[in-house]
Amino acid sequence: KFTNGKKQLNQERFVFTMSVSVSISPSGEIVEGDSVTLSCSSDSNPPAEISWYKGGTFVRSGRIYSISKFSSDHSGEYTCKSRNKHGEKYSDAVICLILSILDAPRNVVVSITGSGEIVEGDSVTLICSSDSNPPALNFSWFKENQSSAVGSGQSFSALQSGRFYCEAHNQHGSQRSDAVTVTGEAFINTLLYLHIIHQFDNYDDLHLSVHPGAVRNVIVIAAISGGLFIIIIVLFIM
């Protein structure tokens, strides 16, 4: 366009506009070990270069950020940055995602209150603990070499000797602890003592001793009758 013999250029003022957003798949709860995909969308023209940041630290480039096996190390706040020759813009802080990990119980251990040795008539309390999100609320107790549970709840009172372990459960799975050993004489009740003594009440001298073991318990009976020394060994498999 010419005005008064001079060329006048029409100048258009460029206004930089760009919207940036982040989406995540899956959109629901994330379980440890899941595959997670973060996508960055930008409507810039010309197309923008995309960069990803975790907690303000650059982690990688590209529109898609995939994590094949999500773990606690990946938990944090993610943002993406869109940049072209006209400028740059970060995704809005509201859209940045703090990823929460849900997992099955792990690090399941059994602790014993006291020495772990049962005195006749007493019991030993076992406590099961674990790490998980959400916390484990269901606990089952087992005795080695037995398929059926012998108790439930986070604590368990062992009334007999043997090796015990617990299983912790939540909606994402379960894990069992290593077995712990409880020793003592509680597996022999008063009626058993009375029965043995009654069977040998005609003997001149009677000695009874108990030897607890991890798998079976042994009762040794030593008696003297008419100058004859007798030893009887009784095995109780627990």
Layout of SSEs?
Layout: E1 2-3, E2 6-7, E3 20-25, E4 30-31, E5 36-42, E6 49-54, E7 57-61, E8 64-67, E9 77-84, E10 87-90, E11 97-98, E12 101-112, E13 117-118, E14 124-133, E15 138-143, E16 151-152, E17 155-158, E18 162-170, E19 173-176, E20 180-184, H1 190-199, E21 205-211, E22 216-225, E23 228-237
Parallel strand pairs: 4-12, 13-20
Antiparallel strand pairs: 1-2, 3-5, 5-8, 6-7, 6-9, 9-10, 9-11, 12-14, 14-17, 15-16, 15-18, 18-19, 18-20, 21-22, 22-23
Protein name: Ig-like domain-containing protein
Keywords: Membrane, Transmembrane, Transmembrane helix
Pfam families: Ig_2
Description:
Pfam families: Ig_2. Keywords: Membrane, Transmembrane, Transmembrane helix. This is Ig-like domain-containing protein. The chain has one helix spanning about 190-200; strands spanning about 1-5, 5, 20-25, 30, 35-40, 50-55, 55-60, 65, 75-85, 85-90, 95-100, 100-110, 115-120, 125-135, 140-145, 150, 155-160, 160-170, 175, 180-185, 205-210, 215-225, 230-235. The protein is mainly beta. A hairpin with a 4-residue loop joins strand 21 and strand 22 (about 215-225). It is rod-shaped. Mean pLDDT is about 75; it is low at about 5-15, about 95-100 and about 185-190.
